[in-house]
UniProtKB/TrEMBL annotation:
Protein name listed in UniProt: Ribose ABC superfamily ATP binding cassette transporter, ABC protein
Gene Ontology CC terms, in alphabetical order: plasma membrane
SUPFAM superfamilies assigned to the protein according to its UniProt record, in alphabetical order: P-loop containing nucleoside triphosphate hydrolases
Domain ABC transporter: 4-239, 234-492
Alphabetical list of InterPro entries matching this protein: AAA+_ATPase (IPR003593), ABC_carbohydrate_import_ATPase (IPR050107), ABC_transporter-like_ATP-bd (IPR003439), ABC_transporter-like_CS (IPR017871), P-loop_NTPase (IPR027417)
Membrane topology listed for this record: Peripheral membrane protein
Organism of this sequence: Bifidobacterium tsurumiense
Membrane spanning residue stretches: none
Annotated compartments: Cell membrane
GO molecular function: ATP binding; ATP hydrolysis activity
Length: 501
């Protein structure tokens, strides 16, 4: 049984105190929730708990004794395991190799391959992941990769487990699986730190909640506090309308997809999105939503079928042509597909508009940089200035940049894949306002999302997918979570392969 306390800790980057005099105590057998907007300092706090950053002020205590946690290895010795917000897995290596990454004896000892394999299999079984341990990590979707990351932390038998937005990429079923595991760990006396932007998860798994705002400690309250109360502590104001969807009369067809097929993945996908419309794409993990979005955008190829944007049929697998025709994509995995992490915020915001400005033979650098600054302001991206690297921003703020890049580029049809993953409640509303702006300007939006309230709250119509096909289309105002889920599991094989990707 271990008790971990941060006592008055601060962290300074450059001239900014991103965490200021924060105290948190993680009790054995309790789940301590850290709550706050994007950039509030949550991940920075847990990085101090896990030896990645050293506090600039204050100190850390374990069981009442002052300690210094000098690195990840050190944290492990103290019994602290961390599931980081951004995945730390190597796509080229197998699941098993990833599970043991950094834990193999460096030299001297020899590796007992059989024992490793057995342990890896047990770890996957524990979290209900039905996958061969030799599968390369890169073949799994984000959700499954997240499950492996969780398995890896569990394998350490830690007495303190820190989970930084573990549920952001998971569907409800997988979340429930994780919560059941957390309940078991609680019963064993493991203390946990849990971060999530899904407020409904707090009362389900949490015991106490510490709220941070702009790096400041605000309050510690019981996890049974109402969502309204928590939002108010978090953002300092009430949020009246979580889903400010504006319905419009649909205009001409801007995106017309006919009979897209790809062996084993896409099955006769046909859909239309009209000017002014938001169409939601729902389904379980692995249903094929990301595949549809990527094929339309030209990020992947397909065997047969057509994609027509604003009356023009697009060649297969040609992103440049798609962008020229007016398509934009906010991808599922922002770190590998949506952003250049080492480039600045301004450079990232400008990426999608390079093509149109350079068409006239010169780049309008002055206008461009003004637009970048305006966009960053409008999205309320939290940063020192637009020259900061995108990779050093908090997760939710990175997502806003990917979004902002397209909102600058005058897209006609915006494809969204999990647009608000990891985005806080306030910023989520800002992103929804951007969606409204696109439709108000006569654009169209196709939005794949695992967040059912979001799909129902922000779409005009909901398309439901299962096993690579569209199994239904519901007007959003008549759809319910239940009716969508019923369509999402139809077409499933009898031996139930909900698990398959
Ligand atoms: N290495 C770094 N260099 C400079 N600034 C940083 C660095 N790491 C974090 N920051 C800044 O510190 C602030 C807090 O970031 P942190 O990642 O802790 O936020 P968070 O609460 O986890 O947000 P989110 O919900 O978006 O994940 C942000 O403004 C971020 O830009
Ligand atoms: Mg974070």
């Amino acid at each position: 049984m271990t008790q971990l306390s941060l006592v008055g800790v601060s962290k300074i980057f450059g001239n900014t105190k991103v965490v200021n005099n924060v105290s948190v105590t993680v009790e054995p057998g309790k789940v301590h929730v850290l709550l706050g907007e994007n950039g509030a300092g949550k991940s920075t706090v847990i990085k101090m708990m896990s030896g990645i950053y050293q506090p600039d002020e204050g100190h850390i205590e374990i069981d009442g004794k002052t300690v210094r946690i000098l690195g990840v290895e050190d944290a492990r010795k103290f019994g602290i395991a961390v599931i980081h917000q951004e995945l730390n897995l190597v796509p080229q290596l197998s699941i098993m190799e990833n599970l043991f990454l950094g834990m193999l004896p460096a030299q001297g000892g020899f590796v007992n391959y059989r024992a490793m394999e057995k342990k890896a299999k047990e770890a996957l079984k524990l979290i209900g992941l039905n996958e061969d341990v030799h599968t390369p990590m890169g073949e799994l979707g984000v959700a499954r990769q997240q499950m492996v990351e969780i398995a890896k932390a569990l394998m350490q038998n830690a007495s303190i487990l820190i989970l930084d937005e573990p549920t952001a990429a998971l569907t409800r079923k997988e979340c429930n699986q994780l919560f059941a595991i957390m309940d078991e760990l609680k019963a064993k006396g493991v203390g946990m730190v849990f971060i999530s932007h899904h407020l409904d998860e707090i009362s389900r798994v949490g015991d106490v909640v510490t709220v941070l705002r702009d790096g400041q400690y605000i309050d510690t309250v019981d996890a049974s506090a109402s969502e309204d109360e928590l939002v108010k502590l978090m953002v300092g104001r009430d949020i009246t309308n979580q889903f400010p969807h504006e319905h419009r009369e649909p205009g001409e067809v801007l995106l017309d997809v006919k009979d897209l097929n790809r062996e084993g993945e896409l099955n006769n996908i046909s859909l239309q999105v009209r000017a002014g419309e938001v169409i939601g794409l729902a389904g379980l993990v692995g249903a094929g939503r990301t595949e549809v979005i990527r094929a339309i955008f030209g990020a992947d190829s397909y065997d047969s079928g057509t994609v027509t944007v604003c009356g023009k049929q697009l060649p297969k697998h040609a992103i440049g042509k798609s962008i020229e025709a007016g398509l934009g994509l906010v991808p599922e995995d922002r770190r590998t597909q949506g952003l250049v992490l080492d480039a600045s915020v301004a450079e990232n915001l400008g990426l999608a508009t390079m093509i149109p400005t350079s068409k006239y033979g010169f780049a309008d650098l002055h206008g461009q940089s003004k637009r970048e600054i305006d966009t960053a302001k409008k999205l309320r991206i939290r940063m020192a200035n637009v020259n900061q690297t995108a990779g050093s921003l908090s997760g939710g703020n990175q997502q806003k940049i990917v979004f902002g890049k397209w909102s600058m580029a005058n897209v006609r049809v915006l494809l969204l894949d999990e647009p608000t993953r990891g985005v806080d409640v306030g910023a989520r509303v800002e992103i929804y306002e951007l969606i409204n702006e696109i439709t108000a300007n006569g654009g169209a939006v196709l939005m794949a999302s695992s967040d059912l309230p979001e799909v129902l709250g922000m779409s005009d119509k909901v398309l439901v997918m299962s096993e690579g096909r569209i199994t239904g289309c519901l007007p959003a105002n008549e759809a319910t979570q239940e009716s969508v889920m019923a369509l999402a599991v139809s077409h499933m094989d009898d031996d139930n392969n909900a698990e398959r990707n």
